[in-house]
Amino acid sequence: MMKSFRLTFLLLSLTIVAKAQVELSKKGQTAIVTYEKYFEENKDVHLKEFLELVSMPTVSSLQANRPDIDKAAAWIVKKLQAIGMTTAQVMQTDGPPVVYGSWEGAKGKPTVLIYAHYDVQPVKESEWTIPPFEPKVVDGKIFGRGTSDDKCGVMIPIWAVEAILKKDKALPVNVKFLFEGEEEVGGPNLHKFMINNKELLKADFALNADGGQYSESIPSICMAFRGSAQLEFNVKTANYDAHSGSFGGKTANAVKATSEIIASFYNKNGSVAVAGFYDNVPAITAAEREMIAKVPYDAAADMKELGSTADVGDTNYTALEKLWYRPTLEIVGMQGGYTAVEGFNNIIPGSATARITCRLVGSQKGDEVIQAIVKHIGKNTPAGATVTYKFRPGWAHPIKFPSDNKAYNYVANALTTVFGRPPLQTGEGGSVGSLVDIKEALGLDAYSFGVAIPDERYHAANEFLRLSSIRKGQMLYCNYFMYVGEQEDKAKK
C-alpha cells in the first residue's frame, strides 16, 4: 500500500453516506456473535501467527531478500490450506510470486476477490527503536515493518474466513484471495498475471485490504488514488573521488552537478519545469473546487504532525488541490561524496545518484513522464558531467471510484455496522497500481477495506499496527461476507 500521512485522509466530501444502514437478519447477527467469540478465544494464536509473518523481511526492492519473499509466500499458502480453503497455491510471475487461494462452495452465491500484498518497504535499522523484523507488542501496538502496510491486510481476512468455516463449515459467499509480492515496487508483473488468469480470478465484487480508516473511531472509503512512476539517475564527473586540495577549483563536482540538475526541475512558483510534464493533466473542475472548499483542512495541524514549517509546491493551487488533483516530481533520495555519520573527507565527489518518484493524475502515463524527465536532464546536464539511468519496470496508474453502486453500498454498510457511524469519503495522494490492474483486467472496483490508521508510520521507521485494529478488521470482514450473502439472496427473490 503505498499510503501517505494524515493529510491524504482528509475528506473528499463532507457528505456522509446517505443510505440508511441495513441490518443483518437475526440469524446473521447471532452468527456474528459466535465469530467474535472465536476471535477472542484464538487471539493469542492469531497474534503469534502475525508476528511470525512480520518477522520475514519481505523487501521486494532488494534481490537479496527474494528467499524471504518465497518463504513468506509458502507460509501463507500453508495457512490457507490449514483454514480449509479449497485452493491454495504459489503462482509464479516474472518477479516475486503471487499467492492465490479460493473457497467456492457457495453455489449460486457471488464471489468476492480480496487483494493485499505481503511485500514491504526497505528499512534503515538505525532509525528504529526495535529491530524492524523482530516485531514486538508495546502499549497495545505491534511494532515492525509491514505490520500496518500490509501484512495485516493479508492476515485479517484470512482469520475472518477461518472463523466462519470453523463455526459454520461454509461461507455465505465464495471468496478468492490474491496476495501480491511486489506492490512496493509498483507491481510490474501483476497486470500480466491477471490478464493470463482472468477466469481464475473472476469475481462479482473486489476488496482492497491494502487500505485504511480515517481514524480509530471514524471509518472511511478511499475514492481516489494518484499513480506513480520512478527513475534513478547517476551523475559521473570523474573516475574516483579526487583530493579537494590537489584538484579543487578546476574539476567538476558530481554532487554539485546533480544539485543543479535537480534545481532545474522546478520553476520559481513551485511548478515543474519539465517540458511535457503536465500533458494529459485535466483541469480541476468547478465542482471539485467547490468540494475542496468545504473541507476543514488545518494547515498548522498538518505541519505540526510532520514537523514541517511551510507549505510548498505550485503556488497556483491550494494544498488539497495539489494533493488530490495535481502531479508531483519529488526527489526521494540523493547520495554522493562522503556521507558517514562522523568524520570529514576533503574530496571532490566523482559520482552522485538521485532517485525520483512522480505522482500521476488524469491520463498521465508513467513511461511518457519519465522520458520527458530524461530529455530534460539531457538538456540541463552541466559541462563535465555524464548521466546514466536506471529505469524501474512498470508504473502505477491513477484511479477514481464511483459511489453509486451496490459494491460501494456493501462496503459502506459493513463499516457503518462495525464503527457505529457511516464512512467518510477520502482521497489518497499515494498509489496502489493493483487497483487499476483489477479494474482493467477484471472490470471490478476494488474498494478500500483495510484497517491502517494514518499515524502508523508505514514506509517510515517504527511502523506499527494497533492491536485493536485486528479485531475491528476481523469483524468488518465477517459482517461484509454475511451482509453480501443475505442481500444477494434477497435480490434473487
UniProtKB/TrEMBL annotation:
This is Acetylornithine deacetylase/succinyl-diaminopimelate desuccinylase-like protein. It comes from the Bacteria. Keywords: Hydrolase, Metal-binding, Protease, Signal. Pfam families: M20_dimer, Peptidase_M20. InterPro entries: Bact_exopeptidase_dim_dom, Cyt/Met_Dipeptidase, Peptidase_M20, Peptidase_M20_dimer. Residues 1-20 form the signal peptide. Residues 232-383 form the Peptidase M20 dimerisation domain.
